[in-house]
Amino acid sequence: MRQALLALLAKEPAHGYELKQALEAIFGIAYPSPNIGQIYVTLGRLEKDGYVRAVDVEQANRPNKKVYYITAAGREALETWVDEPTEGPRVRDEFFMKLVLAPLTGLADRMALVNRQRRHYLSLMRDLGELAELAERNDPANRAALLLIEGAMLHLQADLDWLERCQEELQ
């Protein structure tokens, strides 16, 4: 959330509700709608860390609002985030730990674990397919939302393929 807010503020100053609306417009239904309380808490932390500064803006017939601006330190933190590669594949996989260790305890059968995990992944895949259809119907021009869903589906497909490999190797 921190980097997303900094990125939006690097584009232009905004207040919390504008940031929430921008995130919703950019990512659509593919990304859970951010909680406004979480946005303001994050903005407060960013301000405390010196990454943003807030300016009170008077409004006629309404309470004042805080407009947030990115600082030089915030821009530097954002540039660092953009330049760093994102974590790659996970080696410490919780399911794999279960798959290898649970049978040693006598609590589970490997194939039962694989089948249960496969059903779970297929259920998630169905849910993502429905989400993709909904996103396509509601906002077909929002390529970011559709790409996010597609990426999640491709990761799930890779996990399903890996489960097949585990089943072949560990029978």
Characterize the structure shown.
There is one protein chain. The chain is mainly alpha-helical and 171 residues long. Helix content is 68%, strand content 10%. The chain contains 7 helices and 2 strands, in the order αααββαααα. The longest helix has 29 residues, at 110-138. The chain is elongated and about 70 Å long. 14% of the residues are buried.
Quick summary:
The protein has 171 residues and is mainly α. It is 68% helix and 10% strand.
Measured by DSSP, the beta-strand proportion falls in 5-15%
Strand order of the largest sheet: 1-2
Number of strands: 2
Which percent bin holds the helix content?
55-70%
Structural class: mainly alpha
Report the sheet with the most strands, covering strand number, pairing sense and barrel closure.
Answer: 2 strands, antiparallel
Rg for CA atoms:
22 Å
- What is the end-to-end distance? 42 Å
The 3D shape can be described as: elongated
Give me the number of helical elements: 7
**pLDDT < 50 stretches:** none
Element pattern in H and E: HHHEEHHHH
Mean pLDDT rating: 90
